Amino acid sequence: MSPTRAGEPRDPHDDGRPRLRAVVGSDRIEEEIFGRAFDGKVVRRIWAFVEPYRRQVMIAVAAVITFTLAQLTIPLLIRYAIDHGMAPDADPRILSGIVAIFAVVIAVNYVASRVQEGVTGRMAENVLFDIRRKMFAHLQRVSLSFMDKTEVGRLMSRLQGDVNSMQEFLETSVLSVGDVMLLVGIVGVMLWLDWQLALLVLAVMPILFGVRVLWIAKARAAFMAAHEANSITNGALAEAIHGVRAVQAMDRAALNAELYGELVDRNYEAHLRASRLAQIMVPIVDSLTGIAMAVVVVAGGQMVVSGRIDVGVMVAFLFYIQRFFDPIRSLTMQYSVMQRAMASGHRLTEVLDVEVSVEDAPDAVPLGPDDDGSVEFRDVTFGYNPKHPVLKDVSFKVNSGETVALVGPTGSGKSSSMALVHRFYDVQDGAVLVGGKDVRTVTQESLGRHIAMVLQEPYLFTGTVMENIRYSSHWASDEEVVEAAKAVGAHSFIEVLPQGYETMLEERGGNLSLGQRQLLSFARALVADAKILVLDEATANIDSYTEMLIQKALRRLLEGRTGLVIAHRLATIRNADRIVVLQQGRLIEEGNHDALIAKNGLYSKLYNLNYASFDDIPEELTEADREVAT
Amino acid sequence: MTTQTELSDRMFRRTGGVDRQQGLGAITRITKMAFRYPGRAILAMVATIAAVAMQLSIPVLLGRAVDLTQAIAAEAADPGPLITVALTLLGVSVLRGLFTLAQNYSAESVGHALARDLRGAIYDKIQRLPFSFHDRTHSGDLITVGMLDLEGVRMYFSTALVRTVLLALLIGFGAWQLISTDPLMGVLALSFVPFAAWRSSVMQLTLRRTWLVLQEKLGVLSQVMEENLAGIRVVRAFAAANHEMDKFDRASKMALDLSHERVDVRVKSTSAMTLAFFTAMGLVLLVGGRRVAAGEITVGTLAEFLTFMTILQMPVRQLGLMVNAYARASTCGARLFLLLDMPVEIDDAPDAKPLEITEGTLKLENVGFAYPGTGEQKAVAGIGFEARRGETIGIVGPPGSGKTTLMHLIPRYYDASDGAISIDGQDIREVTLSSVRQAVAVVQQDSFLFTTSIENNIAYAHPRTDARRIRGVSESAQLHDYVLGLPRQYSTIVGERGVSLSGGQRQRLSIARTLMMEPAVLIFDDSTAAIDAGTESRIRAALRKYASSRVTLIVAHRLASLMHADRIVFLENGRIVEQGNHEELLALGGRYKALHDLQMRPDGDVLDEMEDAR
Ligand SMILES: Nc1ncnc2c1ncn2[C@@H]1O[C@H](COP(=O)(O)OP(=O)(O)OP(=O)(O)O)[C@@H](O)[C@H]1O
Ligand SMILES: Nc1ncnc2c1ncn2[C@@H]1O[C@H](COP(=O)(O)OP(=O)(O)OP(=O)(O)O)[C@@H](O)[C@H]1O
Ligand SMILES: [Mg+2]
Ligand SMILES: [Mg+2]
């Protein structure tokens, strides 16, 4: 039934007992394996982030070139020293002169390497932060439907892991430039010193390239598999951390540890394989170094004997060969970095390319203080999946200053309607108007300031109580915050917290009771001081007495404001000016409390249920409601 | 309780940070752990020694080759020995490659094996640490330990330890070899070593110190991002993107500045070390050249010294990496071990037996509890009641009155600090934890759903159950009809924390998965608040068949949900202020009655009356 994927146990538990419906970690399939080490498109996208640092890149590359030249010069200097400065009859000043040049070269080398590493290091960090910022900013704009279906953990691994591998890539790519330069330089110098000997030495190169081609085919898959295995295990760990209370409550710790153990074992195997493949190149490269050295010793020795070359040239060759294989070795190591970077870059661009489907129109106008607080639904049809609308042809109007309640069975589309008022999603048909303007024609920023919302799920941030209530309403003074807290009846419990308003809340406000969290998120909406107040089950987890106190305080606070209230407890809403009843996404009744009671429809049934004892619920009512509720 | 709190504070609130002693302790411990794989670890070491030996013989061979060549050229001798040297050179290179392969592979495999063990241990630990630990520890910090710190520890063996051994052996044997060849030049060739050692230890200290701070800054940054994404609806609702970008930029800048500082420290030290290295090389060239000219040594010897130095060049350049790896391993290791060593305060008593359910009676005696860090202020105190199988107890009270807290004491999510809770006469602290958790199931007020199919979510507690039972509990929770309407039915994947479900659907799913547990004590913690009265009453009707064989506790604000309970407990400030059945409490005319009037009287402003009443 559930989709199988790489992470699902091959079922070692298949012991004749019923199928094990358990996996740890996300049940979703990770992105397809993406194993190329170079992808022009990705590189172009990443280049856009490097572009602003063009100057630094140029400096770094110049430094790398200087550095490489210095590196190339050193064996040459040694060669000259040997051939011209050390003969018994040589002028001692020649040696001193060469050593002086050597000193200059190493000074240049020092400056160049310092500049290069410093500049690239800083630049890579900057680019990393830029990419992350761009992504984060983009995520602030992408539509909620994308956020709904994307796990936070997955986005976090984009923002962290993938961004980090880009950084690693940038740092190494400057080094790679140096490596390639060194390689080319060494080949050049060797050819210049003695082209025949150089060609003999370079004869090993085709072998190396051949081996590498074979190797890459295998290594690519292995490296990606290891990377993949890591993200699977890390995902499962993140799940265990976030869901730890559920795991303990349902006593799943032991089984989960076992399932996780399997993931970890597979991860281990994948890494060992990747590591084997990475290391296999070492003896190959070393053997080729050996061959090259042997060639120089035998053929070069012969040439020295025959007087074709000086012994210094032979020494220089030996030096170059030592250095020649270093870049090859590190280029091999960088292969996996490059490959990982390409995969990461690919995923990063995927995030950056997520379409912003809910966007300010080009000619969007801000909703100002002069716009009133009316809300209107005009023949609205909307579905998270356009094929399955959750709101069908809904029309109603809330005049400025009115309080309208939305009621209906669970899943009937109440929260969804509120999301539309705020333009979290765009409607498929019809229009939602706020302050008389279609929400698609106003700026989202101003719409947000026009409406304050208490969401069904209270969400608080790590920070003090004060910061949480104030949230983004920077203009609110401490007194206003306290005022709002008093209005919702939160002041009394805040005061007895260890540091009062300065008490730090833990993650999601975990050190408060749910009702208290709800009160804070209520206060937060009041502080925002908006024309329209949307309360989605804002008092569901609060007792009726506290609720009444809130309502009393609200009566003053809501004066002149528009209220949209969702509640299941009908007592909460009977004072509303009007009540809109939703059922399966359709508006079925509308009117004030008395009118609806008189109508004897769904509202009056639901209303009466609040009082009826469930032992006395007439059977036909339960039946009648069955389709209502689902 | 305090020890746990302090530890978690030390670990993540960074009030103390990780001190030097702990860092060293961590290094020793990781090293010891690495030798738990003695085969591979020793192989790595032996291979390192062999690789060094091969490495060191290369300069000697090259020196020989140069001397031989010159000799042959001068005396037209037999070129045979030159070929022997060449072949030896080839053989030695091949061996060096193989030994390096063995060294790297076994070192890495030790690291991976270590990581495998640690991953398992961390996972297990995190799963078993009690709620009180998780209350005070940000999930992001735990993820950092499980991912970054683990990586730091994993890299230690291959990047730090083995490389140090390699470098030390190279320098040690090299020094011996060079000095015995020519003391003066040997000393010159190695003159950079003391300087490099000094620089790297300075660098190590700075990097270690800043690594801790950097981790902290990055922790703040990732917390900002994580909470932003998790609370994206709030961010959108308040049009707070700018506010959030500000938070991000602040956190980001702090981390960036520190990263720059670290880059500078690293670059400064490594380039200074490289400079020292080349200076030594220049000296060797100068002095060596003079002595060759004077005929005191051969060109071959000079070439040997210089090649030796070229071989050292790579490891010296990597000193920075190595030092960083040490710095990282010691700080990461210290934090990781702090987590692993954290005592699990809620655990099985030494010789605990599983809970035996006979009568199915739950009894609370004078139970009290205070959350750690809240001083003496008790969240609940002096609670006592008894409930027999088939009975239902209702619990009401204002927000923060301690209802959830009390419910969390029964399955031992927290241990009561006073009094005792027992089931069938067995104190829940004296039987196995697992049996208590299975006997007491809570539909949590704030439930977490897993990103998997609806079916797997329902079957979470009993993953081997069959489709029929899944359907059964789903029907009781009034979820079945809804699920049937979904395109993929029970295989539909629910998103993280169930965002693609409505509030009521989420609650019903969590009711269904709890019913699956068939516990002796079934607790509903305000778990129908987002469900309309109609659906709720049907759930309640369906639950009647479950209620007869167990104790049911219902926390609710909607009185209709619990007025038929056998007893109703009214909590305020963590204490029972009223207790009795519906009629009794109404007759009492106290708080319960006031609440009842408020909810039941369809009209009129009861508020003023109530205020008078209080
Ligand atoms: N983000 C989403 N993605 C996909 N489907 C969703 C999403 N949110 C809600 N739904 C579906 O849309 C329907 C209406 O949900 P909505 O949250 O509007 O209901 P509601 O009336 O607020 O219910 P409740 O009283 O239970 O909160 C439900 O069937 C739900 O499963
Ligand atoms: N993890 C925690 N750490 C510290 N204090 C806490 C923690 N959880 C709850 N509290 C405090 O303990 C008290 C009781 O909280 P509890 O969650 O039991 O209330 P409740 O009766 O369930 O309220 P609600 O009706 O809002 O759910 C509150 O004052 C709350 O702030
Ligand atoms: Mg809702
Ligand atoms: Mg509670």
Please, what is the average pLDDT of chain A? Answer: 79
Strand order of the largest sheet of chain B: 6-7-8-3-9-10
* Domains of chain A (count): 2
Number of strands of chain B: 10
Largest inter-chain contact set: A-B, 208 and 199 residues
**CATH-assigned fold name of the largest domain in chain B:** ABC transporter transmembrane region fold
**Second-tier CATH architecture of the largest domain in chain B:** Up-down Bundle
Number of DSSP strands of chain A?
12
Radius of gyration of chain B: 35 Å
* The number of domains of chain B: 3
The whole-number mean of residue pLDDT values of chain B reads: 81
The CATH class assignment of the largest domain in chain A is Mainly Alpha
The proportion of residues forming helix of chain B, as a percent range, comes to 55-70%
**What do we call the CATH homologous superfamily of the largest domain in chain B?**
ABC transporter type 1, transmembrane domain
- Number of helix segments of chain B? 22
Helix content, binned percent of chain A: 55-70%
* Spatial arrangement of strands, main beta sheet of chain A: 6-9-10-3-11-12
Secondary-structure content class of chain B: alpha/beta
Euclidean distance between termini CA atoms of chain A: 23 Å
Outline the fold blueprint.
The complex is a heterodimer of chains A (630) and B (614).
Chain A: H1 40-50, H2 54-85, H3 92-139, H4 144-149, H5 152-193, H6 195-202, H7 205-242, H8 244-249, H9 253-305, H10 311-352, E1 375-382, E2 391-398, E3 403-407, H11 414-421, E4 429-434, E5 437-438, H12 444-450, E6 451-454, E7 463-464, H13 465-470, H14 478-487, H15 491-495, E8 504-505, H16 514-527, E9 532-536, H17 544-557, E10 562-566, E11 578-583, E12 586-591, H18 593-599, H19 602-609, H20 619-629
Parallel strand pairs in A: 3-10, 3-11, 6-9, 9-10
Antiparallel strand pairs in A: 1-2, 1-4, 4-5, 7-8, 11-12
Helix pairs in contact in A: 1-10, 2-3, 2-5, 2-10, 3-5, 5-6, 5-10, 6-9, 7-9, 9-10, 14-16, 18-19
Chain B: H1 2-13, H2 20-34, H3 38-75, H4 80-128, H5 131-136, H6 139-181, H7 183-189, H8 192-230, H9 232-237, H10 241-293, H11 299-317, H12 319-341, E1 362-369, E2 380-387, E3 392-396, H13 403-409, E4 418-423, E5 426-427, H14 433-439, E6 440-443, H15 454-458, H16 467-476, H17 480-484, H18 503-515, E7 521-525, H19 533-547, E8 551-555, E9 567-572, E10 575-580, H20 582-588, H21 591-600, H22 606-613
Parallel strand pairs in B: 3-8, 3-9, 6-7, 7-8
Antiparallel strand pairs in B: 1-2, 1-4, 4-5, 9-10
Helix pairs in contact in B: 2-12, 3-4, 3-6, 3-11, 4-6, 6-7, 6-8, 6-11, 6-12, 8-10, 8-12, 10-11, 16-18
